[in-house]
């Protein structure tokens, strides 16, 4: 009873110092409304903010302690909503929500763009050899797999075989498609050398997109067989639905196709135009730095846009689900965790 009272008082104090830019703090809840695309976009910009990579150990301890004080109603006077939101952002960026252990820096969501951009640059290098194509596709899927594993749901133990299966499937599909398309382009006699080079630059996209779909299906195939939990408006478990699982995987797969599109399609178009400028023709050494900046900009824009397409907690009408789910609740709609 005492904990409930102190938490209520902390919430009231938080609401008192709220502002339009700093809404009342809610422990464990998103800062921005998730019902609109703009709200989800701002939420994911917070999640991928690379500045959290430079948070010191001391600052992390302070953030965790501040959230503990809020939880137990022992906040010091004058603590603002902005400070609480900032503390939660730091904790969620660095510590795994289930294990409470630090996530290795290159595999944090906030490190996805800084550590992933060099790989994107490698994927888009012109005049790739067979060995370099295989290497960059392998490195890209290895990085993706490590990020997926480091940020996995750890509440239920998952066999390592599922992770290995998804990883191998993604690597094999990515390498096979990339190598196959490169061979076809090389054998296309109708292409001029300039056209062949331009087409080769677009090869990584279908390879990565197909590998992403393969990875999602293999890693989460068990959800299609067993179903996923669906909840009513009050957060009560209604049941486990295979139909909701199909919707969740379809939305996630679509996100994984949209994500590499701007990253792997826009830079080749931009670079094909920039390479014709007098500056880059006179200074070819600038090509790689300029391409790196173009890739970084495309990556930084594409990631939050893609993962903001669908809400994390998606809604579906009960009439579309299994009859036993519809009978188990009076709610017209239920929600399910789509996953990232």
Architecture blueprint of SSEs:
Elements: H1 2-16, H2 37-47, H3 57-71, H4 81-94, H5 112-123, H6 130-150, H7 160-187, H8 193-202, H9 204-219, H10 221-226, E1 228-231, E2 237-241, H11 242-258, H12 260-274, H13 278-282, H14 287-307, E3 313-317, H15 323-327, E4 333-337
Helix pairs in contact: 3-4, 5-6, 5-14, 6-7, 6-9, 7-9, 9-11, 9-12, 12-14
- Main β-sheet, spatial strand arrangement: 1-2
Total count of helical runs of at least 4 residues:
15
Label the structural class: mainly alpha
Using only C-alpha atoms, the radius of gyration works out to 23 Å
Q: What composes the largest sheet?
A: 2 strands, antiparallel
Beta content? 5-15%
Q: Into which percent range does the helicity of residues fall? A: 55-70%
- What global shape is seen? globular
Find the count of extended strands (DSSP E, 2+ residues): 4
Give the termini distance in whole angstroms. Answer: 37 Å
The helix/strand series, from N terminus to C terminus, equals HHHHHHHHHHEEHHHHEHE
Average pLDDT figure: 83
Low-pLDDT segments: 1-16
How many distinct domains?
2
Region (Disordered): 1-26
Transmembrane segments: 166-185, 197-218, 257-274, 286-310
GO biological process, one term: amino acid transport
Family: Belongs to the sideroflexin family.
């Amino acid at each position: 009873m005492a904990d409930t009272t102190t938490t209520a008082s902390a919430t009231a104090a938080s609401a008192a110092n709220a502002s339009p830019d700093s809404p009342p703090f809610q422990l464990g809840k998103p800062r921005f409304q998730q019902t609109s695309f703009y709200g989800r976009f701002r939420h994911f910009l917070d999640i991928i903010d690379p500045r959290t990579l430079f948070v010191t150990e001391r600052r992390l301890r302070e953030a965790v302690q501040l959230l503990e004080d809020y939880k137990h109603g022992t906040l010091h006077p004058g603590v603002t909503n902005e400070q609480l939101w900032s503390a939660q952002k730091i904790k969620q960026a660095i510590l795994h929500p289930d294990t409470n252990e630090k996530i290795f820096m290159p595999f944090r969501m906030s490190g996805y763009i800084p550590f992933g951009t060099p790989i994107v640059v490698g994927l888009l290098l012109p005049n790739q050899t067979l060995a370099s194509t295989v290497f960059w596709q392998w490195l890209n899927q290895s990085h993706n797999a490590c990020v997926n594993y480091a940020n996995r749901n750890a509440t239920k133990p998952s066999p390592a075989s599922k992770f290995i299966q998804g990883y191998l499937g993604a690597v094999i599909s990515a390498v096979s498609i990339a190598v196959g398309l490169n061979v076809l382009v090389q054998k296309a006699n109708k292409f001029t050398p300039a056209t062949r080079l331009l087409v080769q630059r677009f090869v990584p996209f279908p390879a990565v997109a197909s590998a992403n779909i393969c990875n999602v299906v293999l890693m989460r195939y068990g959800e299609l067989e067993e179903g996923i939990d669906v909840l009513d408006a009050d957060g009560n478990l209604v049941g486990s639905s295979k139909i909701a699982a199909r919707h969740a995987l379809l939305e996630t797969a679509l996100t994984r196709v949209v994500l590499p599109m701007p990253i792997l399609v826009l830079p080749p178009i931009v670079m094909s135009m920039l390479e014709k400028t007098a500056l880059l023709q006179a200074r070819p050494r600038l090509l790689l730095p300029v391409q790196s900046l173009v890739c970084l900009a495309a990556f930084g824009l594409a990631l939050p846009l893609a993962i903001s397409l669908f809400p994390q907690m998606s809604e579906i009408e009960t009439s579309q689900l299994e009859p036993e789910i519809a009978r188990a609740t009076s709610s017209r709609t239920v929600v399910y965790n789509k996953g990232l």
